[in-house]
From TrEMBL:
The family this protein is said to belong to: Belongs to the cytochrome c oxidase subunit 6c family.
Domain of life the protein comes from: Eukaryota
UniProt cross-references to CDD domains, sorted A to Z: CcO_VIc
Subcellular location: Mitochondrion inner membrane
Pathway annotation from the record: Energy metabolism; oxidative phosphorylation
Membrane topology: Single-pass membrane protein
Pfam families hit by this protein: COX6C
Annotated PANTHER family: CYTOCHROME C OXIDASE SUBUNIT 6C
Name of the protein described by the UniProt record: COX6C domain-containing protein
Keywords, sorted A to Z: Membrane, Mitochondrion, Mitochondrion inner membrane, Transmembrane, Transmembrane helix
Organism: Rhodnius prolixus (Triatomid bug)
Cellular component annotations (GO), alphabetically ordered: mitochondrial inner membrane
Length: 71
């Protein structure tokens, strides 16, 4: 004789399982994004601003006539 299938509380159990899986995937995805995308961006920005000279950039744009308020 086979046992009856569990029907009482089945939806509740499935929802708990699905929430746990969704939470684990969300945390994993967030960490992977932070590691592979966020850290790479931080490094690129840091490298850019090590050699960036805002005053020199302003003078070049001023010479090209980009600004209307300066001569």
């Amino acid at each position: 004789m086979s046992s009856k299938p569990k029907l009482r509380g089945l939806l509740h159990d499935k929802i708990k399982t699905n929430i746990a899986i969704a939470l684990a995937l969300t945390v994993t995805g967030g960490l992977l994004f932070k590691i592979f995308v966020g850290e790479a961006r931080k490094k690129k920005y840091a490298e850019f601003y090590k050699t960036y000279d805002a005053e020199n950039e302003f003078q070049e744009m001023k010479e090209r006539g980009v600004f209307q308020s300066t001569r």
